[in-house]
Records
---
Amino acid sequence: MNIKEKKELEVTVDKRHIISIGERLYTESVELLRELINNAYDADATEVRVEIDADTITVKDNGTGMDEEGLRQYFVIGSDEKVLRSVSPRLGRERIGQFGIGKFASLAAASRFEVLTRRGDFGARVVFDKDDWESSRGTWRLPCDIFGPDPGAGDGTTVILSGLTKPFSLGDAEEKIREGVPLKAPRFAVFLNGCQVAPRSYSGQRIPILEGCRFGAVSGEVVITPKSLADPKDLGIEIKVKGATVKKDLFGMETWGKAIARIKGEVQANFLPLTSDRSNFITDSDEYREFLKVMEKLVGIIKKKLGKEADRRDDVKAGRAVKEALRRLHRALALNPDFSPFGPIPLGEEKGIGGAAAETARRKTVESEVQPESDRGERTAEAQAEKKRKRRNPLIKRITPNAIVRKIKMGDQAVSVCLDFFGENGPECFSEGNIVYINRDHSLFIRESQRSAAYTMYVARLLTQEISLMKETKSPRLAFARQSKLLKDAFAESERS
C-alpha cells in the first residue's frame, strides 16, 4: 500500500472509564476476541475470520469499515456512539457494544494493537503501542497512515494483535466465541483458523421460551439433556443480551443435585442493563427484577418436566420389577403346588405377562373388578349374588391413572398385581380376591425402589406374603413359613445360573 499522508490521532481519555482500561478490564485475555468480533457484527459484517498463532491474533471482517471520523471515534474511550446509534445502518442490527472500551482489553494480552480499515476510497492504519500507553500522561497521539484509493480492496476492518504475553488455546477461543458472539444471527458467520464456528446445540427435551414483561420480551430455549450427556463442568443457563452471553446462572436450581447438570440452554433479554465491562447485570434494577420473575416461572416448568420424566422412569423400573417377581413366584409355586391357592401350576408355563398393550387390558380387568358395574348379558342369580358379596365393601373404589398393573396365569386362575398410590399412611400391601395391591407411597417401597438389586426381592416378598395368606388364613406362622419357602425357591441359585 502506498502511503499518501501521515497523521496522528489524539486519544481522548474519559476519566469516568479510565479505571476500566487495560488489564483491569477483563480477567480473561480471551475475552478480547468476543469484543473484537462483536465490533465487526456492529459494523454489519457478514463474515469474520480469526487467525491465531503463537505470537499473533488477526481478526478480519467485511463490514462497513471506517472513514477518518469513524476512526477517531473508535479511539475515544467511553464513547456513547453506539448508545446514540443503537441500530446498524446497513442490516438494521441491534448493536452489541455500548461504551467502546472493549478494544483496550487487548493490552492485557498483547504489546501491540494495529487497526487497518477501509471504507470506499478511504483507507488507514493505526498502531496502538502498549509502551506508549504506559509512558503517556492523560493524552497521547497514535501514528495513523492514510492510504490512497484501492479499487480491488473491499470495505472492512482488520485488527492485528502482536507480541502476545500468553498463549491462546484454540479450544478456549472457540468456546468464548460460541458463548459470547451472536452466531445464530442471520447473515453472520465466524471462522477460526479456517473453520466455521457453529452455535452451541444440545439434544434432548426442548422447552421453548417466549415470555413478555413490561420492559420487553424474554425468549430462547432450554433443553433437558439425556443423563448420558449431563455435563457437571458446564452448569447454568446462558443469559444473552443482543445475542451475546453476559453470564450463566442456575436460578436456584443448584439445590437439585445431579439433575442440574442436564439443564442447558439460553435465554435472551435485550432490555437488561449491563455493567460497563459487560460481565454482569445491574441487579438492583427494575428490569432485572422483572426478568427474575420470568425465570422463576421457567424454573417451575423445568421442574415439572423433570418430575414427569422421573415418574416415567420409575414406572418402567416398577413394571420390570413386578414382571420379574411374578415370573419367580410362578416358578416357586410350580415347585410347591401345595402352597398354591390357585390349583396346580405347570412348571415352565408362564402366560399373561406382556407389554404396554397387555397392561392396558389388565388395568381394565382390575378396574372392572374393583368398581361396581351393570349386568353384562345373562347371569345366573347365584353368580350375581356372589358378585355382590365380593363387592359389598371394596377397599379400592378406583385405581389412579398412574397405576401399574401386571397379570399372570396361575393354574386355572389369573392373579393381578397393582402398584398404586394409597398414601404414606396406607398399608404396605393388601389383597382383594386375586388382586394384590402394593402401595407406592409407603416409605419402605420408596426406599427399596431406589436400590435396583433389592427392588425385585422386595416386590416378591410382598407377593409371597399375600399369596401365602390367601392359602393359610388360620395360622399366620404357617403362612409365613410357606412364604419363606416360596422366596427361597424363587431366588434359588439354580434360577440365577
---
Amino acid sequence: MKIATWNVNGIRARQAQLQEWLAQERPDVVCLQEIKATVEQLPVWLCDMEGYWCYWHGGKGYSGVGLHVSRTLCPERPPFAQPSFDYENRIVEVRLPLVTVVSVYVPNGGKDFPAKMRFLAALEQYVADLRAEERAVVVCGDINIARTEMDVHPKERKPAAIGQLPEERAQLERIIAHGLVDVGRALEPGNDQMFTWWAPWRNMRQRNIGWRLDYLLASQSVFDRLRSCSVRREVGTSDHAPVVADFDTA
C-alpha cells in the first residue's frame, strides 16, 4: 500500500501537476493539504479523479484538505469523516479495513499561535483516542513544525521562529508518543537533508535550504511493514514536495 502526502499550495494552480504525478506514482492513498478551493471550484475530472474515491474538504482561497483512496485498494467507497475539533477545513480521516489514514494541515501559527497550539493539543487527544480503540493509524500532512534542529537547514535555524519553538516541538513529541513512528526519520535517522518545504526565493529549493514540515506518522504495526519512504523533491512547483511511503500489506 503506497501512501502519499503533498501540500499543493493551491490545487487549481497545481491540477495538471497533480494529474501527471498521480499517473506516474499511482499511490493507493493520497493526502493533500492547502487545496484553497471548494468542490464547486474544482474541474469535474478533479472532483472525481479517475480510479479514486475522492473527498474534498476546503474553502475559497484558504486552507483545505483532500483525501483520496484507490478503488483498487477499496472496491466500495470507504467512510470519510471530519473529526469534531476540525476548523478551517484542516483535517479529514478515512477508516480503511486495516488502517485509519488522516490528512491534516496544522495551522502555521503566524497570525494566531494559541490557535495552533490548541489544534495540536486536540490532534494529540484524537490520536490517543484512536490508539485506545487499538486502531492502526497513519497521520499524514503538513504539521508546520520542524521536529528537531536536524530538520532545518543550518542557514534557516532561528530559535525564535514559529515552527521551531520548543513548545511546538514538545507538543509534536507528545503526539508521536501515542505509539506513532516518524516514518521518514526512523528510516534515515542521520539524514540532515530531508527537507520538504523551501521558501520560494533565492533558489532555496534548488539549493535544498529548507525545513522538514511534512510527515507520515504511523503506528508501529504499520511501520513494521515499511518498504520505502522518500521526499519527491523534483515534483511540482508548490513550495512543498510530496512525501511517499510504501508499505507491505501481505
---
Amino acid sequence: MSFNLAVFKTRTLSAIIFGAIMIGGLIYNQWTFLVLFAVINFGCWWEFHRLMDKIEPTYKDLPNLLRYIMILIGFSYMLYMSNPQSYPIGKWNLHDIGGYLLMGFSGLFLLGLLAFYKKISINNLLSLLAGFLYISLSWGLMIKLRGRLNIYEQTDAGLIIPIVLIATIWVNDTMAYITGSLFGKRPLSPVSPKKTWEGTISGAILAIMVISYGGHALIGLPFRLLILISFIASIMGTFGDLLESKLKRLAGVKDSGSIMPGHGGFLDRFDSLLLATPYVWLFADMFL
C-alpha cells in the first residue's frame, strides 16, 4: 500500500494524545493501571456486542440484561485477578471483592438464562463465552502481570512486563505500518489486504531490536528476557490483528468504533494486545 502523509499525520496526532493518556494510566500507580484497563474492558465489550449484532442475526435477540451482566462478570474477573497486597481497601482487598462479585454476577447470569431461555440460542451463549475469553480473560491476565511484585524483589517490578509488552506492540504496529507503506508489495493475508509480508516481518524485527537493545541499555533489564517477551508479543500481536480484521470483515465494517481518529475503536487499537497478553502471561508464569 502507498504511503499517505495526511493519514499518517492524523494517526500520529491521535496516537500522541492516546499515548499520553495510556502512559499516565500505566505508570502513575496500580490504581490508575486498573482503572485504565477497566475502561478498555468496557469499551472492547461494547464494540464486541455491536460486531456480533452484525455477524450473527440471532445475536440481536440476546437480552441486553445478559449482555450487561456478562460485561460485569468480566470486570469482576479483572478485580479477582488483582494482587491482594496491591489493592487494599480497609480490611478488604479488590481480589476478595472481585471473587464475591464474580460469584454474584455469575448467579444472576444463570437466573437470566432461566428467565430468557426461549430467546437464547447455543450460538449466542458460545459468542458470549468467546467474548469473555477474547476480552476479559486477557485484561484479567494483564492485571495479574501487574501484580507480579517479586520479579526483582521491588514493588514497581510489576510494571516491567506490561510496559515491555505494550511498548513492543506499539513499536511493532508503527514500524509495520511505515515499512509496509513504503516497501510492502506482497499481501500478508486476504483477511487484511493492506498488511504486507514486508511490513509484518520488518516491523517484528525492528520491534524486537528496539525493545531488547533499548530496554537493556537504558534500564538494564536482562537482554534475553526482553528478546523473548518482545518476540512473543510481536508474533501473537500480529495474529491478534488478523483475528480482529476477520471479525470486522464478517461484520462488514471498516472499524470496530471511532474512539481514535485514524485508528478506529477500542478493539482496533488493542486487538494485538488482546491476543499477545495471555501468551506473555503464560511465559512469565512458567519461566520467571
---
Amino acid sequence: MNAFFRTVAAVGVALLGLASSPALACSVCGCGDPLIGVGQVAGPAGQFGLELDGQYLYQKAGAEMPGSLDILNQWSLLLTASYTPVKNVNLVVTLPWVWKDLKNQDMDGTTTPTSNLNGFGDMNVGFRWFFWEDIDLGSRTRQTLSVSASTFIPTGNNSAVDADGARVDEHGQIGTGGWGPNAGLFYRLQGDLWSAYAGVWGLYRTTNPYGYRFGAAGLWTAVGQYQPLDWLAVALGIDGRYAGYDRQDGVNVESTGGFVLAAVPAVYAKVFPGGWLLAKAQLPIATALNGIQTIGAVVTAGIRYEFE
C-alpha cells in the first residue's frame, strides 16, 4: 500500500501545470505544483524514479497588429528524475524537449506560419523537505507538511530568428532566456484508500538578455485521490494561477498574464511491477485574462518507474 502511494504521489498532479511544465513560456500556461516530479510524500532513502511525459497545450493571444492573433500549438516531451538521498528530502530534475508551432491569424481569418521550432527547453531542478509528520494509528491517517524550492534554468534557446533574420516572438522561442525561482508550502493527508493534498507557491521570472520578463505568478493546487483497486487510482483536483503582465523593457505587454482556474481529472494504472501509466488534463473552468487571450486544455500522458 505504501509503495503504491509513493509511486502515485511521484506522478501526481501537475503542471498544469496549464505545470507548469518547465518548458512553458507563456504567462498563464502553468499552474499547480512546480515540483510535480519530486513527489508529495517522502520515499525511503536511496529511492530513485524516472518519469517520461508527453504534453500538449494550445493558446491564442492578441498580436502586435491590431485585430490579429498569435496561435501557439506546443508539444513537450519531459524526462524527470527524482531521488531521495536522505530521509525526508526529495530531489528532482526535469529535462524538456519542446516543439513550438506559432502562427498569425489576421482579421479575416487567414493564417500565416510565423515559426516552427524544436529543441531542448528550460530545465528545472529543485527539492522538497518534509519537516513535519503526524501519524494517527486509530484513524489510520498520516499528515505531512513540506516546503519546496526549485528554479527553471535558461537552458533553452531564446535567440532563434526566422528566414528573414528577424528574432522569433518570445512566445515562439523554445526557452524563456531567464531564470524562474519558486518556493512553496505543501500539505498532505493520507488514508488507506484515499488521500488529499494542497499547496501554494510563488514563482518569479528574471529578465532575459532581450529585456523581456515573463510575469511573476502565484500558484495553488488542491486534490482528492482514491484507490479503488491495487492497480488503479483516480484523482480530481483544482489548479490555479494568477500571473502578472509580462514586461518588455519595463513596459507591460498587452494580452499577457491574468487568472486561470482549472479542473484536473487524472488516472493512474499499474502496468508492471514498479511501472505506472498516467493520464490527466487541466481543463480551464474560470479565467480572467488580460487583454485578448484564449487558453485550451493541457493534456499529459506518461509512464513512471520506481527503482526500489
